Amino acid sequence: MAKKSDKNKDKDIKEIFVFAETLKNGEGALKFHQVVFELLAKAQDLAEKYEGKLKVAAIVCLNEDFNDIKNSLYENGADKIYNVKNEKITDYIGVSKGITELCKDKKPEIFLIGATNLGRSIAPLIATSLETGLTADCTKLEITNYKDGKKLASTRPTFGGQLMATILCKNLPQMATVRPSVLPKRDDIYKKDGKFEEFIPKLEDYNECITTISKEINKNKLNSELENAQIIVAGGKGLKTEENFNKLRKFANKIGATLAGSRGAVDMGLIGKECQIGQTGKTVAPKIYIAFGISGAIHHLTGINNAEKIIAVNTDENAPIIENSDVAIIDDAAKVLDELLEELEKE
How far apart (Å, rounded) are the C-alpha atoms in residues 33 and 112? Predict the structure, then answer.
């Protein structure tokens, strides 16, 4: 009997795809978005529990060299890297079409994408082209038994964050987007290197429909500050007034924390939408999260699920934030804030 060629063997290997989005730092050097490493770690966990164990493949879409950062994908969980490369790819539509061709050729079982601006743009385009489902803004991913096989179970808040829904996808690939800071990264190095394949999509039906007139760097770094903050001080409706929020800002500055707020505080006009934490705002993973006057509805708790320590100040001892905190202070948030500032002034 003739042996299978290596190429045919590769065709038999089932894979989980992880979209490896790239960014440029302040010096213009390439780097991978932090959510990529979080997804790779989770993909390895899912792969172990799937039928026949899947291989994890990172999907890069670059025309330029990225050798300096390539090994970070292997170290964080990638068994293989596919680089989708074509000079025609100049915008997110080109990225989605190129990756769609790759999916049709390689037929992955699962495809995970970070819920970033780019990820949220390409995921529905890819899912529609592949005639499969997409669960967006997931907070939990698991492998579950379904009928005679295994399925990806994707969990996300629904009905305005009041319920958690777990969704299965009937077709392949089973697709999900996950917000940054929801999943933990690996603490160890997975491997030093792995397989690499360049994929050249044909893009026969692709016509560039977006023209970039100019580029301008957004100097408001608040989003990245929140996502990477080690200490976050957040205020809710319980602070009540703009004066109290100014005190909260002063407190944050004194202890070197990043300021944030709940959806309720945003709705009251006490803080900007860009500072909102929760399902409809930012997902964070600080070492310390201090909540002043936040009740802690499920959509807010979703945003702080990975905080190492939660300190909550609230008058309601039955508030969800109190039940989910490591340290709880049952008192008026504005009063406690005044006392903290008074103590800090003494130093």
Answer: 14
Model's pTM, two decimal places?
0.75
| pLDDT of 59 strictly over 80 | yes
Bridge partners of 32, per DSSP, are: 22
Q: Which alpha helices (DSSP H) does 256-311 contain, by range?
A: 263-267, 298-303
Residues 123, 136 contacting (CB under 8 angstroms): yes
Could you say which DSSP state residue 169 is in? Answer: -
Give start and end residues of each alpha helix (H) in 107-162.
Answer: 117-130
Residue type, 206: Y
Which of 294, 285, 70, 16 lies closest to 194 in space, CA to CA? 70
Phi/psi at 37 (5° precision): -70, -35
Joined tokens for residue 125? 């385009």
Tell me the pairing of strands 140-146 and 174-178.
Answer: unpaired
How would you list the strands of the sheet with 80-84, edge to edge? Answer: 134-138, 174-178, 110-114, 15-19, 55-60, 80-84, 195-199
Quickly state the pLDDT bin for 163 (edges 50, 70, 90).
confident
Tell me the three state secondary structure of residue 153: strand
Tens digits of residue pLDDT in 131-149: 999 999 998 999 999 888 8
Span 217-254, pLDDT tens digits: 554 444 457 877 899 999 999 999 999 999 999 999 99
Q: Is 299 exposed, middle or buried (0-12, 13-18, 19+ CB in 10 A)?
A: buried
Question: Which backbone phi and psi does 185 adopt, to 5 degrees?
Answer: -85, 170
The rounded distance, in Å, linking the Cα atoms of 339 and 231 is 20
What mean pLDDT value characterizes the chain? Answer: 88
User: 111, 173 in Cβ contact below 8 A?
Assistant: yes
